[in-house]
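Deliverable D2.4 — example input (structure tokens):
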């Protein structure tokens, strides 16, 4: 029974990731049960065994994002002992996820997905707000440790951090990947750190694992 449940969760994850890719590549109109099935390499009836409709798949994409957001914060905490290193790791991982899952900018920006579904809109708000709150906690830890200026607003600083790659993601997508978003993040991080740090950061953008 456990093996069957694991297989079901794995298949649902594959379907959600395939839908995310289709959404980013071709837009909402491309997202059909048949298209998702073809991308995963299964028949449409197999998709219906896990998801009753396209709306259910869109809900699963939000679950996928929620898992990513939680994992990225947990991994940053495990990898870096200091808050500044954790913030750097979060935005690097965030940018990498955007390049690997080109549907994410479309999900965030496309009002058509959320506007007609109040419950999904509320779900997205809950997921993203929880992500921001996790980042805010790291910023407050940096303030408590004397690394981040006490006058910095944790909410504003968390939004500013994620804002590093928001316009860059749009340029990356519009240029079909020609714009180097990861290089942009490395150039922008020292500017961000200089703005929030108590002391100037000369190599803080690389983080610290010791």
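Example output (designed residues):
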């Amino acid at each position: 029974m456990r093996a069957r449940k694991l297989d079901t969760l794995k298949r649902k994850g594959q379907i959600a990731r395939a839908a995310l890719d289709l959404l980013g590549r071709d837009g909402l109109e491309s997202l059909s049960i048949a298209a998702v099935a073809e991308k995963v390499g299964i028949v449409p009836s197999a998709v219906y065994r896990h998801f009753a409709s396209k709306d259910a798949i869109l809900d699963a994409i939000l679950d996928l994002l929620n898992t990513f957001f939680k994992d990225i914060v947990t991994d940053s905490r495990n990898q870096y002992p200091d808050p500044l290193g954790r913030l750097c790791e979060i935005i690097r991982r965030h940018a990498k996820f955007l390049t690997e899952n080109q549907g994410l900018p479309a999900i965030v920006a496309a009002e058509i997905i959320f506007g007609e579904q109040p419950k999904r809109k509320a779900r997205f708000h809950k997921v993203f707000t929880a992500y921001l709150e996790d980042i805010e906690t790291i910023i407050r830890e940096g303030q408590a440790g004397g690394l981040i200026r006490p006058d910095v607003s944790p909410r504003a600083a968390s939004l500013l951090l994620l804002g590093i790659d928001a316009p860059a993601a749009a340029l990356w997508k519009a240029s079909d990947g020609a714009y180097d978003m990861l290089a942009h993040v490395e150039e922008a991080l020292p500017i961000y750190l200089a703005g929030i740090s108590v002391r100037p950061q000369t190599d803080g953008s690389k983080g610290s694992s010791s």
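Residues 62 and 124 are 7 Å apart (CA to CA).
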